[in-house]
Each structure stands twice: as structure tokens, then as C-alpha cells.
Write a structure and sequence with these properties.
The protein has no helices and eleven strands. The protein is an all-beta fold. A hairpin with an 8-residue loop joins strand 9 and strand 10.
């Protein structure tokens, strides 16, 4: 079973950038599609971005298109989320997740990393 650990969150100002990382272990990383999700206070967890196993096809939520970029390094068993032009509404706990298909489901989750964007 794959295990996931996120890192890279923090407190930033509007317009700043952050790069989140999610390190995987315990299984063959390249056989999983990977996704990023986020959950803001008092709201449900929502999809942010996803990437396929090998050919790096990506999908994004409309709210982050053009600002966020998902990528992966299969040699390092790591998926990244580059977040640019951050806005206060991007404040949330960000989770990475692993599944067998880009469209989901994603049965495996990390513990999350907090991103706070101040205005």
C-alpha cells in the first residue's frame, strides 16, 4: 500500500508562490495517478489538480487553471504542486492522493499540509 507525506505549506501573502511536495513510499509510485485536493475551513474537500501515471496528462479545477501546475518525478516518487499568484481563497489544507485512474477514485491520502494566504 502506498503512503503519502505532504510538505511545503506555510503562510504567504497574496500574489506569492509556494511549491507543495508529496513524497510516496511503500508501493510502485509510477503505477498511480496522483491528485491534489484542498479543504478550506467549514467546507468540503475539493479537487485541485491531477496527473496521470506516466504520460503526464493533467487536469485542473477551473479556480486554479493558469496559476497552479502539477508535476511528478517518478524517479523520486514525488508529486508537486506549484502554486503561483496565490489568493486568500486558496487558503486550505492541501492533501495529495493516489489512485489507479486520473478521474479517480483516490483511495490513498496523505495527512495534509496547511496553506494560508494573507490579504
Amino acid at each position: 500500500q502506498i503512503q503519502l507525506v505532504e510538505s511545503g505549506g506555510g503562510l504567504v501573502q497574496t500574489g506569492d508562490s509556494l511549491r507543495l511536495s508529496c513524497a510516496a513510499s511503500g508501493d510502485n509510485f509510477s503505477t498511480y495517478s496522483m491528485g491534489w485536493f484542498r479543504q478550506a475551513p467549514g467546507k468540503e474537500r475539493v479537487f485541485v489538480a491531477a496527473i496521470t501515471k506516466i504520460n503526464n496528462i493533467t487536469r485542473y479545477a477551473d479556480s486554479v487553471k493558469g496559476r497552479f501546475t502539477i508535476s511528478r518525478d517518478n524517479a523520486k516518487s514525488t508529486v508537486y504542486l506549484q502554486m503561483n499568484s496565490l489568493k486568500p481563497e486558496d487558503t486550505a489544507v492541501y492533501y495529495c492522493a493516489a489512485g489507479r485512474a486520473l478521474q479517480g477514485p483516490y483511495p490513498y491520502w496523505g495527512q495534509g499540509t496547511q496553506v494560508t494566504v494573507s490579504s
